[in-house]
UniProtKB/TrEMBL annotation:
This is GTPase, G3E family. Residues 258-352 form the CobW C-terminal domain. The keyword Hydrolase applies. PANTHER family: COBW DOMAIN-CONTAINING PROTEIN (PTHR13748:SF62), COBW-RELATED (PTHR13748). One of its GO terms (cellular component) is cytoplasm. Keywords: Chaperone, Hydrolase, Nucleotide-binding. Zinc chaperone that directly transfers zinc cofactor to target proteins, thereby activating them. Zinc is transferred from the CXCC motif in the GTPase domain to the zinc binding site in target proteins in a process requiring GTP hydrolysis. InterPro entries: CobW-likC_sf, CobW-like_C, CobW/HypB/UreG_nucleotide-bd, P-loop_NTPase, Zinc-reg_GTPase_activator. Belongs to the SIMIBI class G3E GTPase family. ZNG1 subfamily. GO terms for molecular function: hydrolase activity; nucleotide binding. It catalyses: GTP + H2O = GDP + phosphate + H(+).
Length: 353
């Protein structure tokens, strides 16, 4: 049987996850979605909001979606859903797991790789993070979990953009982009986001498209974001724009613990050396390595190698053939907490032929 595509929906407290799910659960889209509320033992308020007065653990919605509450182990819940599905007791095509606002999505994502039964029945499609445009700046300043949720994202949805002005949205987008240059950002206005922005993103699939904004790469090459902000804002604090300017100003100087860096080189890698190096890096820095992904050129290989990982768990696969006339080379992006960029870059250079 084909593995069931699964989406992890995360976002800080009150970001708008339930609002988004509620819309998905009530919309006619022809998809049969099982929603898992991953509350880990807490009293589940969300489930009551979603399905209203029903005491059932699994509730079928009239558009075919299923809502299910997990008060314990996510692995047990996923396996039990898969068994019921295989037995023909319930029917659904995909799963959305809503994590609690304070959750670190890492362990939830790892469930798909570490548990064999879950791995056989499900395929992690993407981590989708809802970011509250009104409160995110403060949340990112104060809560590492908020940064982590952004760092893990394969897709970011901005909620509550109706409550802030365009300049604040731009400043937030720039910051989110610095934390996670991989994740495309779009908006979810009271949960109104196209379903294609939430499901079937294939963010976790190994493919050889490593989307990176060229501006980000340029910035990495030496441009200083902070200065761009300064010039833009000026230092005139008595100005009318002061409120939002001072805000940007303050945040542009804030360095998030969770950040990304990129490695690029046109020389091919020696696979053995690279394997050894990455193996030892995940041993040491795995807990800080939220997400990494790359398209690599290996010496003597006709095909691209695509690799990615979450913390200590790494995987790689053969990608497409290098095109004729295509410039061969590798690019990798690492998103993590306080990662020693220089150590990674110098180490990776040592693995080149
Ligand atoms: N103005 C505005 N309010 C929104 C938007 N999206 C959600 N909200 C409101 O934000 C509040 C929190 O939304 P929820 O969907 O419950 O957020 P959540 O992420 O599920 O919250 P937790 O489960 O507590 O982490 C609700 O009052 C929503 O109506 C939006 O786009 N604009």
């Amino acid at each position: 049987m084909e593995p069931i595509p699964s989406t992890i929906l995360t976002g800080f407290l009150g970001a708008g996850k339930t609002t988004l799910l509620n819309r998905i659960l009530h919309e006619e889209h022809g998809l049969r979605i099982a929603v898992i509320e991953n509350e880990f033992g807490e009293e589940n308020i969300d489930n009551e909001i979603l399905v209203r007065d029903s005491g059932e653990q699994i509730v079928e919605m009239n558009n075919g979606c299923i809502c299910c509450t997990v008060r314990g182990d996510l692995i047990v819940a996923l396996n039990s859903l898969a068994q019921k599905r295989a037995a023909g007791e319930i029917s659904f095509d995909r799963v959305v797991i809503e994590t609690t606002g304070l959750a670190n999505p890492g362990p939830v994502a790892q469930t798909f790789f570490v548990d064999e039964e879950v791995g056989a029945s499900y395929m992690l499609d993407a981590v989708v993070t809802v970011v509250d445009a009104r409160h995110a700046m403060e949340q990112l300043d104060q809560h590492e979990e908020a940064q982590r949720q952004v760092g893990f994202a394969d897709k970011i949805l901005l909620s509550k953009t109706d409550l802030v002005d365009a300049a604040a949205v731009d400043a937030l987008k720039a910051r989110l982009h610095r934390i996670n240059p991989r994740a495309p950002i779009s908006t979810s206005d009271f949960g109104r986001a196209p379903i294609s922005d939430v499901l079937d993103l294939r963010g976790f699939n190994l493919n050889d498209k490593l989307e990176l904004d060229p501006d980000f790469l340029r910035a990495e090459d030496g441009h200083d974001h902070e200065h761009v902000h300064d010039e833009h804002c000026g230092h005139d604090h008595g100005h009318v724009h002061d409120a939002s300017c001072a805000h940007d100003h303050h945040h542009s100087h804030h360095s998030d613990d969770i950040a990304a860096f990129v490695f690029r080189n046109e020389r091919p890698f020696d696979p053995e050396r690279l394997d050894q190096f990455l193996g030892s890096m995940v041993q040491v820095f795995g807990p800080q390595m939220l997400r990494y992904k790359g398209v690599l050129s290996m010496v003597g290989a006709e095909r691209k190698v695509v690799f990615q990982g979450v913390h200590q768990i790494m995987g790689s696969d053969l990608g497409a053939k290098w095109g004729e006339g295509e410039t061969r080379g590798s690019k990798m992006v690492f998103i993590g907490k306080n990662l020693p960029k220089e150590v990674f870059i110098r180490g990776l250079e040592q693995c080149l032929v």
